[in-house]
Write a structure and sequence with these properties.
- The complex is a heterodimer.
- By secondary structure, chain A is an alpha/beta fold.
- Chain A has 29 helices and 17 strands.
- In chain A, strands 6, 7, 8, 9, 10, 11 and 12 form a seven-stranded mixed β-sheet that branches. A five-stranded antiparallel β-sheet of chain A has the order 2-1-5-4-3. In chain A, strands 14-13-15-16-17 form a five-stranded parallel β-sheet, with helices on both faces.
- In chain A, helix 2 runs antiparallel to helix 6 (about 115-210), helix 5 packs antiparallel against helix 6 (about 115-210) and helix 11 (about 320-370) packs antiparallel against helix 12.
- The longest helix of chain A is centred in the N-terminal third of the chain and has 96 residues, at about 115-210.
- The two termini of chain A are about 90 Å apart.
- Helices cover about 25% and strands about 30% of the residues of chain B.
- Chain B starts with a helix and ends with a strand.
- Classes of the chains: A alpha/beta, B alpha+beta.
């Protein structure tokens, strides 16, 4: 198109130039009219002829006219022969004969004209003839010249017409092309307009999108200056768009303390192109409002190549509210957890409160049973005994649950003798089974390597399974199977199955029987024998041992309850550990009374009169000699005065508690080497370290039964605490950490529970430290003593002897009302605490 | 052609002022032109203020030579090559004659006659040349007076009308109102 147009334009230009030349020649170089000149030439000849003819007939007339006419013709001929007219008209050749003819005439006649009158007059007739001949010839010749000229002019006009025509054609073509170009341009223009509209539409849509975005959108260039700032950003930051645009991001929304980092980041990105924040997804960061208020934002920045270099688009969301909500949620959760802890504590406290009197009731009933009763009394006594034992079981169940939930299940790793364990579980239950005509069988389906596990917890679960099986099976068979399923390295997976041929369980119920308080068989509930917690406890215990329980059953086709446990294969060096005495499985089927191997001298230190009486009765019944002491002080006096084999020490006593009494007994006197067994109503023996420190060998949990007592007093349990008791108030630097204690802790508690324990310990310790600091000169000494006591206890539990000792010294100072001494000891207490925690954190 | 018009118009305008000046000057000065002593080569008649005969102004070569002389070199379409033509400008002749009319009629020996407005006698042309290359022009070669324009130097004079006005063997000028 462009080429065609330039071609057409060129053609028009060339033709126009040609035309201009033609026109110029027409305009600027016209020649004298050919016809006129030829006519004048003829006219002059005719006039000359007339003048000569007249002179011939008037001999006396002047010859002036003849001579003038000759001169005029001469002049005319000269203009024709000399001028450029014919040359310009292209008629030079055509006119040559005419010129020659005229010259011939003039040459011959001029001498006559210029001669004397007489000669001229004589020659006049001759001149008339020659002029006539000339006129005739000229007529013929001039017509020829005019014809040729006309032909030439025609040619020239035709040439001109051709040029004009070509110009017209070229012009039309040019116009057509220009029109086409115009159409093209119009089309392009329309397209451009459409595109501009598209761009406008997209732009306004984008603007609307950005403008209505709930998130703040801030666009900035590579130089960090704001290019765009949407409505939401105005709302979030408090700047208007006009205020924000052109401002540096650093001064506008970046908090002063992050400014240098921001600028360094921008500079780095400019220099290296490495982006840290940009295109990195969502991040949380602080921003600042116009008001200067700093607030948290969630931010994501995208980058894009704009027409003027890299631009950054930041989407910002004010998350102050979200963070507040999150904080509120966390507070709610903490509250809930605190409430849960309170509940657990409440249950633990209730257990204490319930088990102490229950202990009294059971013991009293036992004592009554040994007196002479009539038949009716015996029957009612049996009723009362069963009821109280059931009540105790319920309390224990609930306690178990709360204890497990609180993470205080100490799972031991003792050497297991599985056949023996199963036998001790099953044998006591055989009478109940045969009472219902049910056979009980034990099958060991594989060889068992020496294994480590917690026999008590396993026993608890299996006993629960077996009791249930007996309950729901009449005249059938109960098979107890044990099998090692696989051994990988030192890990063995052992499965126990309790299979009965009883009534079975609906599939629908199978899933929920392990839930709390679920009793599938209404008759079972009606008997009032269970809380529905048995299986729930079993499942919790199994999980505490990283095992699992389950059931396979069908209504009417019996049930198979299984327990699957990962157990450690005991190496040669593995030492058997003895489970705490009181935590031995309750072997209800054993004879109620075991005669003692030999009579022992037993000192009972107990402030509660009921308990004192009960213990005395039980011990006497077992054949031992009993001495009673009503408080710690009395106990110490008696123990120092007389050597006892065993001292049963209540821990919570007014005036002097069991810890102190035990410590004092160990320090001096006749009974310094005696076995001291603590008797505590606390469900959790969580102060084992203090047992060691105060020289207590083992413990018994209230309420006590004769059997528990008998077992505890058996000689094989008489393992003396090997540790020498440190002089309690002697001062001197004890180690920061008790490694044995820590080891023990890591063994008995799972890592999660240990972590919780440590965290709790730290929080509690910090709190007490603060309280001591705050009240060092204002609080009553008794209160300070209580604080120190609590802190010392906690330090002991964790295994921090130095801290424990220091706190104990401070407590003693309080008791002695020695505020100055207290202050001296307190001076570097915090330092010790910090060191202790550091060591603890490193170790665990 | 219209492109030339302003140019001519300018010449014409400038010329008319010059004529106006010349006319006023002439009317006060040249009333006492002596009678010719030699052969008369040009006779000016009609509306004129200066005469030396029977209501006409007659000029011989000598008288003609007393008028302001002017010359230029040019070629013509009637001659070969160029020549230097010398004579008196038409406006100077009219001024000398104290012409007051608006039209001049020029007539040749062969009775060829043209008419032009007095304002046409302007600028460098037309010149009433009586000498060609310094020689008097004979009757047989466009003499004694040829009204001629500087065709070569002024393209505007290369027109058919100007060629038609280029009257040779001129011997009479009549000024009409």
């Amino acid at each position: 198109m462009g080429f065609a147009i330039s071609l057409a334009f060129g053609a028009v230009l060339v033709l126009s130039w040609q035309l201009r030349g033609e026109l110029r020649s027409l305009q600027e170089e016209p020649v004298d009219s050919l016809q006129w000149n030829v006519t004048q030439l003829e006219l002059d000849v005719v006039r000359l002829e007339a003048a000569v003819s007249l002179a011939v007939v008037q001999p006396e007339a002047s010859l002036t006219e003849v001579r003038k006419r000759f001169d005029l013709f001469f002049n005319r001929a000269g203009t024709v022969t000399q001028g450029t007219m014919f040359a310009k008209l292209g008629l030079l050749e055509t006119v040559r004969p005419l010129k020659a003819r005229m010259q011939d005439f003039l040459d011959r006649t001029a001498p006559l004209i210029d001669g004397p009158d007489s000669d001229l007059r004589l020659a006049l007739p001759q001149i008339v003839d020659s002029v006539g001949a000339l006129r005739q010839d000229m007529r013929f010749m001039s017509v020829q010249v005019i014809d040729t000229s006309a032909a030439l002019q025609d040619t020239r006009r035709a040439g001109l017409a051709d040029i004009l025509q070509m110009i017209a054609i070229a012009s039309v073509a040019l116009i057509a092309l220009l029109l086409a170009l115009l159409v093209l341009v119009l089309g392009l223009n329309r397209q451009a307009v459409r595109r501009a509209n598209d761009v406008q539409r997209i732009t306004s849509r984008l603007e609307a999108t950005v403008g209505t975005s709930l998130d703040g959108v801030v666009v900035a260039g590579m130089d960090g200056l704001v290019i765009d700032f949407n409505k939401a950003a105005e709302r979030i930051f408090g700047y208007s768009r006009a205020e924000a645009i052109g401002q540096s991001l650093g001064t506008l929304i970046v908090p002063a303390r992050h400014k240098s980092a921001h600028e360094a980041g921008m500079a780095r990105m400019k220099a290296t192109g490495v982006k840290h924040v940009v295109d990195a997804g969502r991040i949380r960061i602080s921003a600042v409002r116009k008001s200067g208020e700093e607030f948290p934002v969630e931010l994501s920045i995208a980058s894009n190549e704009g027409p003027e270099g890299m631009i950054f688009i930041a989407y910002l969301r004010d998350i102050s509210d979200a963070q507040q909500a999150e904080a509120a949620l966390m507070a709610a959760r903490d509250e809930a957890q605190a409430a849960e802890a309170t509940k657990t504590n409440f249950i633990a406290v209730m257990s204490h409160e319930m088990r102490t009197p229950l202990n009294g009731v059971i013991a009293a009933l036992e004592i009554i049973g040994r007196t002479t009763l009539d038949a009716k009394q015996t029957r009612f006594l049996g009723l009362a005994r069963n009821s109280s034992k059931q009540l105790l079981r319920h309390v224990n169940d609930v306690l178990d649950i709360s204890r497990i939930d609180a993470g205080f299940v100490a799972v031991t790793a003792d050497r297991l003798d599985l056949p023996a364990l199963l036998a001790t579980l099953v044998d006591p239950l055989r009478p109940a089974a045969s009472h219902k005509n049910t056979q009980v069988e034990v099958r060991l389906l594989s060889d068992f390597p020496p294994l480590l596990g917690d026999p008590f917890r396993m026993g608890q679960i299996l006993q629960n399974f077996i009791s249930n099986a007996i309950k729901f099976t009449d005249g059938g068979t109960i098979t107890i199977e044990a099998e090692v399923q696989q051994i990988t390295g030192d890990q063995a997976e052992v499965e126990f199955r309790v299979i009965d041929t009883g009534i079975g369980i609906d599939e629908a119920d199978q899933a929920r029987i392990f839930d709390d308080f679920v009793m599938v068989d209404p008759s079972y509930g009606r008997t009032g024998e269970g809380t529905g917690l048995g299986l729930a406890i079993s499942r919790r215990l199994a999980r505490a041992m990283e095992g699992e329980v389950g059931v396979e059953s069908a209504r009417g086709a019996g049930s198979c309850f299984w327990l699957r446990l990962p157990l450690t294969v005991a190496g040669e060096a593995a030492n058997a550990r003895v489970a705490p005495v009181a935590e031995a499985p309750p072997q209800t089927g054993l004879p109620a009374v075991l005669p003692a191997a030999r009579a022992l001298e037993v000192l009972v230190v107990e402030d509660n009169e009921t308990n004192r009486i009960v213990l005395e009765e039980m011990l006497r019944h077992l054949g031992h000699r009993v001495t009673l002491a009503a408080d710690g002080g009395e106990g110490v006096v008696l123990a120092r005065a007389h050597r006892f084999d065993v001292i049963l020490m209540d821990l919570s006593m007014p005036l002097m508690d069991g810890w102190t009494a035990a410590t004092l007994i160990r320090t001096d006197g006749a009974s310094a080497q005696s076995r001291i067994i603590a008797v505590t109503a606390h469900a959790r023996p969580d102060r084992m370290d203090r047992f060691a420190d105060s020289g207590i060998d083992s413990w018994l949990t209230k309420p006590l039964s004769s059997r528990d007592l008998a077992t505890a007093l058996m000689p094989e349990h008489a393992i003396r605490n090997p540790r020498e008791v440190a002089p309690r108030l002697a001062g001197g630097a004890a180690p920061l950490l008790d490694t044995d204690r820590l080891e023990e802790l890591t063994k008995i508690a799972d890592p999660q529970a240990l972590g919780r324990l440590l965290a709790q310990f730290r929080a509690r310790m910090d709190h007490i430290m603060d309280s001591i600091d705050a009240g060092v000169s204002t609080e009553p000494m008794a209160d300070l003593a209580a604080m120190c006591h609590e802190a010392a206890g906690a330090a002991g539990v964790i295994g921090a002897p130095q801290l424990h000792e220091r706190l104990a010294v401070m407590e003693a100072a309080c008791h002695a009302s020695d505020r100055a001494g207290f202050l001296v000891e307190q001076a570097d207490l915090r330092h010790i605490w910090r060191e202790t925690w550091k060591a603890l954190a490193e170790r665990t | 052609m219209w492109t030339v018009a302003p140019f001519i118009q300018k010449i014409l305008l400038g010329g008319s002022l010059a004529v106006a000046f010349a006319l006023s000057a002439g009317s006060t000065r040249a009333e006492t032109m002596p009678a010719p002593s030699g052969e008369v080569i040009l006779t000016v008649s009609g509306a004129i203020g200066t005469t030396n005969g029977d209501g006409v102004l007659t000029l011989d070569s000598d008288l003609f030579a007393t008028l302001p002389q002017h010359s230029f070199t040019t070629g013509t379409i009637w001659t070969d090559g160029t020549a230097t033509y010398t004579g008196v400008l038409l406006r100077d002749v009219l001024a000398a004659a104290g012409a007051t009319g608006a039209t001049v009629r020029l007539t040749a020996l062969n009775d060829y006659q043209i008419e032009m407005p007095a304002s046409g006698a302007l600028g460098d042309g037309p010149l009433l040349a009586n000498l060609s290359d310094g020689q008097p022009m004979p009757l047989r070669d466009k003499g004694p007076i040829w009204l001629i324009y500087p065709y070569d130097t002024v393209p505007g004079y290369r027109t058919e009308q100007t060629y038609a006005r280029s009257i040779w063997q001129l011997n009479r000028i009549e000024v009409a109102d």
